[in-house]
Amino acid sequence: MVYATLAAAIVAEILGTTAMKYSDGFTKLWPSLGAGLGYVIAFTLLAQTLKTMSVGTAYAIWSGAGTAVVAAIGMVFIGETVSAARIAGIALVVAGVVVLNLGGAH
C-alpha cells in the first residue's frame, strides 16, 4: 500500500509541475490552481508515505521519478530539446534512484 501512495504522490507532482509550466508564471488561473492542487496532494501523500518508509528512499523515488517523467514530458509533448546528454541525464537519475534503493531501507 505504501508504494501505491508514493505512486499517487509522484503522479500528483508530475501533474502539478506540468500545470505550472502552463500557468505562465502563475498568471493563468486554472493552470495555477492545478499546480497548487497538484503540489498539495503530492506533499500530503508523500507525508503519508513517510509514516512507514524511510525519508531517503521515499524522497529519492519521488523526486527521481518526477524529474525523469517531467523531463520526458518536456521533450515529447512541450517541444524541449531532445539530445543524447538529456537522455543520459534521465538515465542517470533513474540509475541513482535504483542504487539508493539497493543500499537498503532501514
TrEMBL record:
It is a multi-pass membrane protein. SUPFAM superfamilies: Multidrug resistance efflux transporter EmrE. The chain crosses the membrane at residues 29-47, 59-78, 84-103. The keyword Transmembrane applies. Gene3D superfamilies: 1.10.3730.20. Pfam families: Multi_Drug_Res. InterPro entries: EmrE-like (IPR037185), Small_drug/metabolite_transptr (IPR000390), Small_multidrug_res (IPR045324). The keyword Nucleotide-binding does not apply. Coiled coil: none annotated. Belongs to the drug/metabolite transporter (DMT) superfamily. Small multidrug resistance (SMR) (TC 2.A.7.1) family. This is Multidrug efflux SMR transporter. It comes from Streptomyces gossypii.
